[in-house]
Amino acid sequence: MLWIDKYKPTSLDKMDYHNDISINLKNMIKSGDFPHLLVYGPSGAGKKTRILAVLQEIYGPNALKLKIDHRTFKHPTSSKSIQITTISSHYHIEINPGEAGSYDRVVIQTIIKEIAQSPPIDSASLGAFKIVILNEVDKLSKDAQHALRRTMEKYATFCRLILCCDSTAKVIDPIKSRCLGIRVPAPSQDDIEKVLYKVATAEKFDLPAKLAVNVAKQSGGNLRYALMLLESQKAKQYPFQSSELPLLDWENYIGQIVKDCFEEQSPTRLSIVRGKLYELLGHCIPPELIFKTLLLEIFKKLDHDMKFEIIHWASYYEHRSQIGSKPIFHLEAFIAKFMSIYKKYNQ
Amino acid sequence: MLGTKRNLNETDDRFNDENVDSNNNNNNNNNSNGSKRFKTNLISFEKKSNTATTSITSTTSTPVIPLGSQKRINITSFSGHRITRVIKSQNTENISTSLSKSNILFNDLLKKPINEILEEIENTESLKLKSELIKNSNSLTPTKSKGVEELAKNKDNRLWVDKYAPSSFHDLLSDTTMNLEVLNWLELWDHIVFGKPLPKNLVMPSTFGNNGNNNNNSGTGGYINRFNSKFTTSSNSNQQHQNQGQYLLQEDGTPIAKIILLTGGPGLGKTTLAHVLAKQANYTPVEINASEDRSGEAFESKLLSAIEMKSLFNDKKPNCLIIDEIDGISGRDNGPIELLIKLIDNSLKIGNTKKSTGGSTGAKKSGGKDGESSDNEEEDDEYDEEEEQSENGSSTTKTTKGKKGKKKGFTTRLLRPIICICNDQYVPSLRKLRQKAMVFDFQAPKKHELLSRLKVICSNEGLTASDATLNSLIDMTGSDIRACINSLQFIKSKTSVLNSDILKNKSNIVIGQKDMEKGLVEIWNNIFKTSTVNNKNNNNSNSNNNNNNSSVLSKIPSKKSNESSGGNEYLNQLDFQIGACNQVDKLLDGVYENFLTNMSSDYTMEKTMDCLDWMVFGDQMLNIHADEKYRSLVPLAVHQRCTTYSPKIQLPHSDYDNFIKKKSNTNIKDSFYSDLPATIYSYLTKKCFVIDFIYPFIDILSLPVRVTNVQLYSQTEKFNLNRLIEIMKFYRLSYKLEKVNNFNKQLPQKKLIDVLDGDDEESRHKKLNQQTQDVAMQYKLEPPIDSLLYFQNQDPKTMVKHIRLSHSQKQIISIAVQQYKPPQKSTQPTVTNTDENQKQKEQSKKPTIITSKEEFKKPLVPTVLKDFFGRVIQTSPETKKKTMGPTPGPNIKYRFQEGFTNAVKKTVYVKDFL
């Protein structure tokens, strides 16, 4: 097992950081009932870990006996069949409605209805409801979100929803208001280092302080990445010689794009950049992340004066790419804008 | 010798017409024709009738066009008439004279006794007089013109389009050469339908037939295609054509091309041509409109009935099937077209396998029968021949015994001409048919011909219009005859004077410009091409450029524009073209892909930025407004910023490439996820997987193991290897040995060399490269998630360096993974007794299949360790022995066969078997 799996805490008591959240959650569970939850926070902060810990807290260790189902259901009106993967225990079911693409609304309605129609088998002993975990709620279409709104109220007696997403920006307000929001912020650098040392002692190897700091820094508050990085370093070079860490491949690639942009500003260069942007998108890197990384990379080499303008345009084009459907246009438009501004500034 | 029976009536009428208004002002037409044509013959007709004596003294004529079966001459009189006459060769005449001197007058020279002809003429003349009387009584005396015969009989009741539809071959506006070719094709059927003697020189020799039989589809298809290209391209190379196309018939007398396909834009007169020619060739045109009868069965019944039967009422002429709008039969239900193709194939096969005994092969029975109706007398002889033929015919489907054995299954031979009509011959559903059919591509009619026709209509309907106005109308409609006439009628309903103002003034006129579908490439070209007037206004560049670019403008149908508004004019045209294009997505893709390369100079990047802003805008509009009103502005905006004189256009592909790449990557990802344990699945979202999981994960997987015997590993090395194996097992990964062809293999190896910086390693990998070349096998991660790592066009210096395992390292890991399998696979253990001899003996007693339940209940193995899922965990052989040792009774071998069974399960104890 990878360290991220091996050292994943399974109960709220064992959490390494954000203890206040753990205490709050525990209290909430003790009270017997709780509203729908909306857990949000950056990637790798420990949202899912906490959600599963809550499940375990409510239903006991059996809640973590998971099984995977690949289910197909019929679209009610058209003849299309939809495939989706569900992960479930006796007490809960977890789905990622985004998998169904534009049919997410159907998936949500069918599954929740199916689960919520019958009361839990063992209602006396454990919580009087089942739990539905919805992943990546922010990826849901507006249709699906509105459908969810009604469903949430209608089936509230037997069914609690735990929604999980990176950012609530794309979750519609009615849903936010129906849920208790729980923010799981990224762990601080110290938190991450602490976890790293803990793993190092458990795995019985020496972790140089500098490496720990570097890993924590580079992870940017993503504990999963931090642990993976450490483990890959251990596999690569142990005993550790240098504390230099490789960037992620795509980050590095974006760095190269930015370098291209600084070297020359011309339509021909832009067409080279276009090829690279396509390459990134082809690797399933989300466009908003490309925007963000591009901006950060550009900032590294940019004069202070221009930063405001660039950041304005970055957000401008990112916003438009959310509305549109072809991210490549928007990414390239941003690059062109940057080239143009940079060129003017240099003259 | 001139004159065929069929044409005679019409020519008579025609000449009479001419007589009536011989002084009509049709010199215009004549001049334009006369320039090209030269006087060849002086042909004089003399004809006696009760009413009038006509004589034409001189005609201009086109050169002889020898096509298909007969030589024809195209005659144009000074007044603009076109007449086509078949020239009978001297040879056939001689033969026929020698054969039957008594019949010559009736059969060969005129085909019909002269008194019959005279009778007919009389009849038609009287009819004509009657109709004129009616006209006069209505006090409507339009100037009658030739070419349009049945004018104004019941005025205003019909659409002009119907009213002025050509009723004879000579009224057709489409290209004469092509008309003739179609007619010739129709006449190729004469032998089979009317039972006329077979023109021998056209029959495909048996050698060719055999070839065609061997590879039926490709052979004949190719032939026909070659044939087609001739038709569409050459109208001049007549001589060549004759050589090429001399084998137009199969041995059984059916034309090789069973079907013709008329294609071309709407309103060019395809349907009219088909109907007119069918009538001309003495058929009853039966139209199946594919847009009505789309379903397979309806179509089939109609088709077969049309081919096999004939109308009782309509002059007893045989049918000629016209399938209109065949491209309307689309995609999902391709039954009708399949049916057609089957029919064609079938008749081709029959035609080729048939052996010809005599010079003239027998027509099929029904063909002969139909021939009866046409007053040809020689059929009876042919019947006899045909009956012999049908015995000899090797085909299984054809079983015509006697005259009355009318048997037709679906497997019938095609014995009637079929004309298919479509607008777009490249519709996918027509692909197969296109290969089999002879294709005629309709071009827009010649302008002057259309113009003179419009003028005739105008004068008949009392609409005054100048040539220039009519010309611009023709331009606006893109030479769509139907649209022109409809527009005229529409205008007539408003005013009786058509001037250019009505056409130009857009607010007044409702005549839309016809949406012309330009090819995407052409539109792209126009977008990126600098327009002339822009050029004049902005750059004042030299005349040379202007000359070059004026061709752009002339390509696009344009109203006359003055210089100042020229730029707008070009934009308008561009806008119009884009609006007419129905693939806006593709259009935008193309614009996006090409604008950077065609950006002439953009130092400040302002123009590029603007273009991209417009693209962004267009993309936004896609989701906000469903219609494409706004998006179609994008190309115009790009056009204003980015044009060159000679645009380089590439077909857009990168978007699609990207889509494919993304899809393949997603598939890899999904296959990795597909059998991940549930716990991992829950924690690791797919998004995270790509962003921050996969890269370090691959590093962890590529543990640089030492290439020696695993036994020699140190403690830590063993530990690390074990851990790696565990991880791989946990994530269901393995190495698979795959055969790689040299080309593919070289690439990753080269990459590998690029990646590794050290010289030693590099040389090592070179060696490895050679080594693997010999082996030609490579270990690949399964699923190949490591391929998600590679980005193209990376700068090798700043690239992230990953350790790539060598072949031998992978081998070690792979073997270790495989060796690790048995303990994992303990789920289906074969618990066997150690004693081999005993085993042999027990073999007979042993039940082959025992379900797992029995196994658990079996008293002999009291302790079966089970894991959580209820699967048996294998215990080491020693413990087995221990447990087995003390058990009394005979040794039993049993085997648990894993798998699923639907059989009814019943508890059976081992003792039952003993």
From TrEMBL, chain A:
<dbReference type="InterPro" id="IPR003593">
    <property type="entry name" value="AAA+_ATPase"/>
</dbReference>
<dbReference type="GO" id="GO:0006271">
    <property type="term" value="P:DNA strand elongation involved in DNA replication"/>
</dbReference>
<feature type="domain" description="AAA+ ATPase">
    <location>
        <begin position="33"/>
        <end position="186"/>
    </location>
</feature>
<dbReference type="Pfam" id="PF13177">
    <property type="entry name" value="DNA_pol3_delta2"/>
</dbReference>
<dbReference type="InterPro" id="IPR050238">
    <property type="entry name" value="DNA_Rep/Repair_Clamp_Loader"/>
</dbReference>
<keyword id="KW-0235">DNA replication</keyword>
<dbReference type="InterPro" id="IPR027417">
    <property type="entry name" value="P-loop_NTPase"/>
</dbReference>
<dbReference type="InterPro" id="IPR008921">
    <property type="entry name" value="DNA_pol3_clamp-load_cplx_C"/>
</dbReference>
<dbReference type="GO" id="GO:0005634">
    <property type="term" value="C:nucleus"/>
</dbReference>
<dbReference type="Pfam" id="PF22534">
    <property type="entry name" value="RFC_C"/>
</dbReference>
<keyword id="KW-0539">Nucleus</keyword>
<dbReference type="GO" id="GO:0003677">
    <property type="term" value="F:DNA binding"/>
</dbReference>
<protein>
    <recommendedName>
        <fullName>AAA+ ATPase domain-containing protein</fullName>
    </recommendedName>
</protein>
<dbReference type="GO" id="GO:0006281">
    <property type="term" value="P:DNA repair"/>
</dbReference>
<comment type="similarity">
    <text>Belongs to the activator 1 small subunits family.</text>
</comment>
<dbReference type="Pfam" id="PF21960">
    <property type="entry name" value="RCF1-5-like_lid"/>
</dbReference>
<dbReference type="GO" id="GO:0003689">
    <property type="term" value="F:DNA clamp loader activity"/>
</dbReference>
<dbReference type="GO" id="GO:0005663">
    <property type="term" value="C:DNA replication factor C complex"/>
</dbReference>
TrEMBL record, chain B:
<dbReference type="InterPro" id="IPR003959">
    <property type="entry name" value="ATPase_AAA_core"/>
</dbReference>
<keyword id="KW-0547">Nucleotide-binding</keyword>
<keyword id="KW-0131">Cell cycle</keyword>
<dbReference type="GO" id="GO:0003677">
    <property type="term" value="F:DNA binding"/>
</dbReference>
<feature type="compositionally biased region" description="Acidic residues">
    <location>
        <begin position="373"/>
        <end position="390"/>
    </location>
</feature>
<feature type="region of interest" description="Disordered">
    <location>
        <begin position="534"/>
        <end position="566"/>
    </location>
</feature>
<dbReference type="InterPro" id="IPR027417">
    <property type="entry name" value="P-loop_NTPase"/>
</dbReference>
<feature type="region of interest" description="Disordered">
    <location>
        <begin position="1"/>
        <end position="37"/>
    </location>
</feature>
<dbReference type="GO" id="GO:0016887">
    <property type="term" value="F:ATP hydrolysis activity"/>
</dbReference>
<dbReference type="InterPro" id="IPR047854">
    <property type="entry name" value="RFC_lid"/>
</dbReference>
<feature type="compositionally biased region" description="Polar residues">
    <location>
        <begin position="824"/>
        <end position="835"/>
    </location>
</feature>
<keyword id="KW-0235">DNA replication</keyword>
<protein>
    <recommendedName>
        <fullName>AAA+ ATPase domain-containing protein</fullName>
    </recommendedName>
</protein>
<feature type="compositionally biased region" description="Basic and acidic residues">
    <location>
        <begin position="7"/>
        <end position="17"/>
    </location>
</feature>
<feature type="domain" description="AAA+ ATPase">
    <location>
        <begin position="256"/>
        <end position="450"/>
    </location>
</feature>
<dbReference type="Pfam" id="PF00004">
    <property type="entry name" value="AAA"/>
</dbReference>
<dbReference type="GO" id="GO:0005524">
    <property type="term" value="F:ATP binding"/>
</dbReference>
<feature type="region of interest" description="Disordered">
    <location>
        <begin position="354"/>
        <end position="406"/>
    </location>
</feature>
<feature type="compositionally biased region" description="Low complexity">
    <location>
        <begin position="534"/>
        <end position="551"/>
    </location>
</feature>
<dbReference type="InterPro" id="IPR053016">
    <property type="entry name" value="CTF18-RFC_complex"/>
</dbReference>
<keyword id="KW-0238">DNA-binding</keyword>
<dbReference type="GO" id="GO:0005634">
    <property type="term" value="C:nucleus"/>
</dbReference>
